[in-house]
């Protein structure tokens, strides 16, 4: 049992001040039962007998929240984050494709996968939907390491058969064989899931997209991740390559790739009609604000997409995104909304980063909050992690103000501990932490 402040979302909030949408315990106890949550209760409600029987760890001063869910990120891009001066298409050619070629080497891929997952945990992110590269071994490396750490992770090998260097292209036959081998090896093992990963319309022939659609309908528990409508130059190129489709989203719809297990990154320039189609199909848009700023892609119309019922989640989109921290992603989502004349309220932001993200990935029954029986993936946040954060907390009395200022000022320094399935997976203050 951990004694600390506790905050978690119980459902999607209706707006700021929706107190029924969350639970906040200023002096709470999170009781664990092995890898699962037993329950979260106010300390004052424990009986004398329970206080005697439980083994307490005192984390007073910390705020316990569910681990963050990153709905869109590229692990092979972790080493080329912050590459200067280009928008999407040039950025892919100049920096991304060259960096991804190194993942043909299994040793290189294994080292990068371990580094990436440690970074996720150091940032308090316990689940993610992740792109590997086109190389089968890159996905193996990531799954192997995530399995070892017991993480709930969804990932897939990239499918691309055009629009890149020869060494990064697979083609429908090779792509299908490698994908089916990976599904066989990893899907459902431990807490892992598989996502079919056609990179985007510009890197896939119709045959490749059709193959992905066949696999998507053949494997009912497999996900699909891709990119859509990110950059205006990209969108113009898609319209030229696929003149018969109604729009960018229509290319994926025609191949049966848009459904409840689909996560499409960006969607910056989608129109109302497309958001309505996403609402009907229950496909999720992963809003990736730091990437959209960094590549100059544009301002995602979150309030409009929300109003039309499109399912949403948040993604870091590293290495076009500039941070793995969900605090940074929430802050940039807020700033994107502000530039469109709207505010993103903190309850909605934390919901998207935890329970909402889990629900968007079809994992709402397993993770996302502290409901009894859920998997105990959570973090302990240090509200005095920096002098400025500590000072700001002197004036933050309401939980919504605490959460908002933490999102604006916080980063990995505020994550004191990360727990995966009830076990400590990162301890910021451990001096002799094993370099697992
Ligand atoms: N579109 C196709 N590939 C990528 C990628 O790696 N990153 C981003 N941000 N967009 C893409
Ligand atoms: Zn991406």
Tally of extended strands?
16
Distance N to C terminus: 25 Å
Low-confidence stretches: none
Count of helix runs: 16
Bound molecules: guanine, zinc ion
Principal-axis shape equals globular
Which class do the helix and strand fractions yield?
A: alpha/beta
Q: Which whole number gives the mean pLDDT? A: 97
**Helical proportion, percent range:** 25-40%
Strand count, sense and closure of the main sheet? 9 strands, parallel
Architecture overview:
This protein has 436 residues and is α/β, with parallel strands linked by helices. It is 38% helix and 23% strand. The protein is built from 16 helices and 16 strands. The protein has helices spanning 48-53, 88-101, 106-122, 136-149, 172-186, 206-218, 232-241, 248-254, 272-281, 289-294, 302-307, 326-339, 346-353, 355-360, 387-393, 399-409; strands at residues 2-9, 22-33, 36-42, 57-66, 68-74, 125-131, 152-156, 158-159, 192-198, 223-228, 262-266, 284-287, 312-314, 378-382, 415-420, 423-427. Strands 5, 6, 7, 8, 9, 10, 11, 12 and 13 form a nine-stranded parallel β-sheet that branches. Strand 9 (192-198), helix 6 and strand 10 (223-228) form a beta-alpha-beta unit. Helix 4 (136-149) packs parallel to helix 5 (172-186) and helix 12 (326-339) crosses helix 13 (346-353). The protein is globular. The protein starts with a strand and ends in a 9-residue tail after the last strand. Bound molecules: guanine (GUN) and zinc ion (ZN). Zinc ion (ZN) binds at residues 72, 74, 227, 265, 317. Zinc ion binds at residues 72, 74, 227, 265, 317.
């Amino acid at each position: 049992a951990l004694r600390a402040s506790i905050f978690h979302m119980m459902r999607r909030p209706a707006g700021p001040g929706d107190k029924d949408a969350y639970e906040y315990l200023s002096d709470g106890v999170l009781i664990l039962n092995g890898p699962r949550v037993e329950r979260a209760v106010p300390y004052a409600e424990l009986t004398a007998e329970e206080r005697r029987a439980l083994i307490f760890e005192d984390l007073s001063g910390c705020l316990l929240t569910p681990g963050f869910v990153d709905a869109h990120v590229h692990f092979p891009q972790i080493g080329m984050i912050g590459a200067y001066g280009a928008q999407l298409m040039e950025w892919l050619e100049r920096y991304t494709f060259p960096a991804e070629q190194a993942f043909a080497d299994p040793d290189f891929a294994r080292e990068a996968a371990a580094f990436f997952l440690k970074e996720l945990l150091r940032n308090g992110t316990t689940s993610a939907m992740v792109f590997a590269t086109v190389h089968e071994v890159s996905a193996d490396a990531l799954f192997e390491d995530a399995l070892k750490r017991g993480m709930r992770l969804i990932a897939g090998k990239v499918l691309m058969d055009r629009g890149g260097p020869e060494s990064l292209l697979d083609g429908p036959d090779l792509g299908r064989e490698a994908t089916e081998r990976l599904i066989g090896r990893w899907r459902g093992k431990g807490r892992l899931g598989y996502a079919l990963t056609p990179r985007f319309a510009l890197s896939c022939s119709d045959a490749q997209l059709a193959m992905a659609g066949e696999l998507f309908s053949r494997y009912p528990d497999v996900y699909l991740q891709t990119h859509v409508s990110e950059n205006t130059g990209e969108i113009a190129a898609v319209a030229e390559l696929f003149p018969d489709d109604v729009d960018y989203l229509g290319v994926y719809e025609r191949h049966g790739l848009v459904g409840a297990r689909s996560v499409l990154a960006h969607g910056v320039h989608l129109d109302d009609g497309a958001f309505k189609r996403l609402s009907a199909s229950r496909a999720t848009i992963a809003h990736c604000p730091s990437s959209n700023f960094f590549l100059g892609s544009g301002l995602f119309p979150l309030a409009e997409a929300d109003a039309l019922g499109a399912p949403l989640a948040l993604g870091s989109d590293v290495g076009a995104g500039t941070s793995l921290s969900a605090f940074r992603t929430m802050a940039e989502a807020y700033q994107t909304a502000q530039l469109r004349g709207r505010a993103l309220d903190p309850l909605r932001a934390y919901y998207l980063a935890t329970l909402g993200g889990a629900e968007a990935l079809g994992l709402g029954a397993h993770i996302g909050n502290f409901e009894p029986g859920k998997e105990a993936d959570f973090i302990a946040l240090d509200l005095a992690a920096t002098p400025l954060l500590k000072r700001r907390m002197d004036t933050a009395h309401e939980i919504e103000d605490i959460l908002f200022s933490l999102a604006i000022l916080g980063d990995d320094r505020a994550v004191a501990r990360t727990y995966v399935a009830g076990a400590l997976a990162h301890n910021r203050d451990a001096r002799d932490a094993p370099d697992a």
